[in-house]
């Protein structure tokens, strides 16, 4: 899988995270083209420090011209939300520009709720925590973009089929 090294490192560093977005759709069995990886990372300072360390170790850099460590600060994230209407903080890999990781700057749904019914999906030998179909639908409803509406229809078919 495209991001397997990242998942391995997040897991071995005990980062509390869940895969959401297009990659979650694919892992649940929806055929859809997606290049970026959307994550919901528990926005607790110690956890964010571990997350940023992993991103730095693997060579990922913020798309905006700031230090990755700036993401750890709740005050910074609140400023970005209020002044720039920021929804996600994006990391890219300079040697692999197609590798883009978007992380929510605030929880659109309570992280504890998302994590409580997340499922573990294996990619080779790597367990990946993935948002449940029910909560992925909920996140997609909040976004409400045309692609999200199509994704919701596909996810409801998965729910009906019991996969």
Describe this structure in words.
- By secondary structure, this protein is of the alpha+beta class.
- It has a single domain, classed as 2-Layer Sandwich (Beta Polymerase, domain 2).
- The protein is built from 7 helices and 7 strands.
- It has a 5-stranded mixed beta sheet with strand order 1-2-5-4-3.
- The mean pLDDT is 92.
Quickly list its features.
two-stranded antiparallel ribbon; Beta Polymerase, domain 2; alpha+beta; 163 residues; five-stranded mixed β-sheet
* Count of the separate structural domains: 1
The DSSP helix count reads 7
Secondary-structure element order, as H and E? HEHEHEHEEHEEHH
Mean pLDDT over all positions: 92
DSSP strand (E) fraction? Answer: 15-25%
Based on CA atoms alone, the radius of gyration comes out at 15 Å
Overall shape: globular
Low-confidence stretches: none
Main sheet: which strands, in order across? 1-2-5-4-3
CATH class: Alpha Beta
């Amino acid at each position: 899988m495209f991001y397997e090294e990242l998942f391995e490192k997040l897991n071995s560093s005990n980062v509390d995270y869940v895969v959401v977005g297009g990659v979650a759709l694919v892992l649940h069995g929806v055929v859809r083209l997606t290049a970026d990886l959307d994550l919901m990372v528990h926005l607790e300072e110690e956890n964010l420090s571990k997350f940023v360390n992993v991103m730095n170790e693997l060579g990922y850099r913020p798309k905006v011209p700031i230090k990755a460590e700036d993401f750890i600060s709740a005050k910074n994230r609140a400023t970005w939300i209020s002044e720039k209407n920021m929804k996600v903080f994006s990391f890219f890999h300079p040697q692999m520009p197609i590798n883009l990781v978007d992380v929510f700057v605030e929880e659109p749904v309570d992280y504890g709720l998302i994590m409580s019914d997340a499922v573990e999906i294996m990619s080779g030998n790597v367990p990946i925590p993935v948002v449940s179909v029910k909560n992925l639908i909920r996140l997609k409803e909040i976004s409400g973009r045309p692609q999200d509406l199509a994704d919701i229809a596909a996810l409801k078919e998965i729910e009906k089929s019991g996969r």
